[in-house]
Amino acid sequence: MYLLNRAQRHTVNTTWMIISLLLVAFLPFLLFIGLYLKSVLLLHDYSLGDLIFSKIWKPSAGKFGFYPFIVGSIWVTVVAMMITAPVCLLTAIYVTQYTKKFFLRIMHPAIDILAGIPSVVYGLWGILVIVPFISRYLGPWLGVKTMGYSILAASFVLSIMIIPFVLNILIEIFRSIPTELKEAALSLGATQWQTIKHVLVKKALPGIIAAFGFGLARAFGETMAVLMVVGNVVRLPKSVFDPGYTLPALIANNYGEMLSIPKYDSALMFAALLLLAVSLFFNLVMHFFIVRYNKY
Amino acid sequence: MTRAQKIEEKFFKLLMIIATYFILAILAIIIYSIFEKGLKSISWEMLTQVPHGGYYYGKGGGILNAILGSLSLAFGATVLAFIIGMPVALYLNVFLIRHKRVVSVIRFLLDLVWGIPSIVYGAFGFSLMIFFGLQTSLLAGILTVTLFILPIMIRSMDEILCTVPIGLQEAAYSLGSNKSEIAFKIFTRQSFSGIITAVLLSFGRGIGDAAAVLFTAGYTDHLPNGLLEPVATLPLSIFFQLSSPVPEVQNRAYASALVLTLIILIVSLFSRGLGKRYHKTKINF
Lengths: 296, 285
What we know:
The complex is a heterodimer of chains A (about 300) and B (about 280).
Chain A: H1 6-45, H2 48-53, E1 57-58, E2 63-64, H3 67-98, H4 101-116, H5 119-142, H6 151-176, H7 179-187, H8 192-221, H9 224-229, H10 247-254, H11 264-295
Chain B: H1 3-41, H2 44-48, H3 64-95, H4 100-115, H5 118-132, H6 138-161, H7 166-174, H8 179-190, H9 192-208, H10 211-216, H11 234-242, H12 247-277
């Protein structure tokens, strides 16, 4: 019935497993080395500080300043987190502490659907709903002239995209806090909100920080949705109503012409390397927070 | 409770309710606006034909090339990720069960890889393509998307496999099974529903992602024919149609977005349904 006997099958299966495992374990290093080798051409001619802090982006003249893109990415990410963080924290507390079990059963599919919607669809929704809302209502109401395609639009769309991700972690964290802690605080006469404020949030703090950190890393690398609503103007934004440009959008917008200008491909690979470094760094740091949370 | 405390209590509870219903309302608005715009412009022609000449200026045709392209790309990537991913997840939970430190290091690496943005995979796939002298093709797209969904696949299988009770494993050992038999015959059956969920989840991720295939899969108006030909994908077709100034083409972008969203919703419904159905074959302790 079988081609091989039992011992041979065991050997084949085990080898297959180990090869796969090695491939997966070396993947992050492979990514890093691959991108580094491609961007070394650029790093050879320019210093790292020049690339990151120079403001002029003119690939045809050989000027590669990533500063506007880095600033744009930071703006978009930070504003998005400012929307996501309070909403997620409040919702996570509400669904774990105040509502009955069945409410979580409604929330879970909702979170799953939000997480499943592809980023292009989010971008399209941003163009359909958020951009006109900002240019027609929010801008004039605040007395700002804006096209709608702006840092704010990108941040809002982005904040919705990372809500399911952050919320899932936060709900997990609040559910893992032992009930005894809560009961002890309540029996000492604390109100429910006091218990949440002084006991639960304090206990969960490393976990909460980690959840926000993971969300931040995810937001920093998001490409298509941001690209579609951020405006793509290479300029330092002065307010959230200005258009901007982000690192992922830079890579995605210029892949077509990158082989026609010298060092252009190397510059885009350097942008990818920067993204990779930021993502790895954030995930590493946040991992330590999670480990600390699990220890106490 | 003092008056101030009561007010604080009420105030924050109100904020929490607002935040929760804000999320639900946003979800409703997104689904509503995609369906409302998409249903208006979707037609049978769009689903069954490839773009004709002048399609991007408003002439006839459809997005069959993108639908089939996306399905074949996501299918190929899911199969490949399954072939590489399942043994890794099994190895972690059967062979390395006594080496907790090694397992936690590998899980940590996987979490790191999961966090890497898909555009980085796209760029990496592109540089690999150049290195091997390949053109943009279905194969290059499949390989890139495989790398991208691999950590998702492994970690979600891992979550299920690590719940298999140790007693089951010991029983199998006592009957004389070796480790690979336990992995492929016992663990896979016990966690069948979880494995299906992991596969479908990865499929959904693979089909919806645009940044990874932007560089590698290319774009074409023809149906996918062969691994070494470029292939159209739904997310990119939405993106290209939307950047057209012609309103009719933009309307088709809304319809394409509806198609993509529906595919993903159906896949996620399936994964819930199948998960429940195969729960019955599981041995309960």
